[in-house]
Amino acid sequence: MVMATIRLDNLNPEDRQEIRKKTSKSILWVAMGTIAMLFSGFLSAYIVRQEEGQWMEFALPTEFFYSTVILLVSSVTMWWATNSAKHNRYGGIKWGLLATLVLGIAFSVTQYIAWGTLYDQTIVFAGSQSNAAGSYLYVITAIHLVHLFGGILSLIYTFAQSLRRKYHSENKLGLELCAIYWHFLDVLWVILFLFLYNVR
After folding, report:
1. How far apart (Å, rounded) are the C-alpha atoms in residues 194 and 184?
2. What per-residue confidence (pLDDT) applies to 191?
């Protein structure tokens, strides 16, 4: 460990940055792969339970459609931020991240409203009136929202760093990591939404 530290210290800043970039992105990809496997397990369990019968069919709340559009737009604003960093446009980085953060919060609020709509239709998570269809819907959407909260925390930190003009064409690793994770959450939600919409 000491020898590895010494060797890294002897590298020039560009090489150290490249090693840090490759290592950080590899760790992030492994984490996202783990999350994807988690949801694959839930969707598989969803299908198995559905085939067992006694499965209640109901329409998804329209709020889920709105939240999908909101999250897709947030990927555009995140792209705006990362593209601005490539051209040293500090205003674009700042406003792109802020817009993404606001849209991420809006998505969370819309999801909460959707749960309220489900509850009003007596589609509950647990209890005598519950059904596996509703329970799985709550669990799957809630777990995605938990991971999205992690993305929101990352956005808050990245936005704060952007106010200090930390990100630019020569240093955008933190911004890129945040963007990769956010786009992943976006794609993941679209897959979940299409699955829940079609597999009723």
Report:
1. 15
2. 97
DSSP 166: -
Helices 132-163 & 13-51, crossing angle to 10 degrees?
170
Question: Under a CB-based contact definition with an 8 Å cutoff, are residues 57 and 123 in contact?
Answer: no
Residue pair 116/62 in contact by the 8 Å Cβ criterion = no
For the record, the structure tokens of 170 come out as 């020569």
Residues contacting 178, CB < 8 A, separation 6+: 78, 151, 154, 155, 158
Can you tell me which residue has the tokens 């598989």? Answer: 44
Choose among 146, 160, 171, 181: nearest CA to 74: 181
pLDDT reported for residue 129: 85
pTM of the model: 0.88
Exposure string of 14-47, with b = 16+ CB inside 10 Å and e = fewer, is: eeeeeeeeeeeeeebeeebeebeeebeeebeebe
Alpha helices by DSSP H, listed for the chain, are 2-10, 13-51, 62-86, 90-120, 132-163, 173-198
- 160-199 pLDDT, tens per residue? 999 999 999 888 999 999 999 999 999 999 999 999 999 9
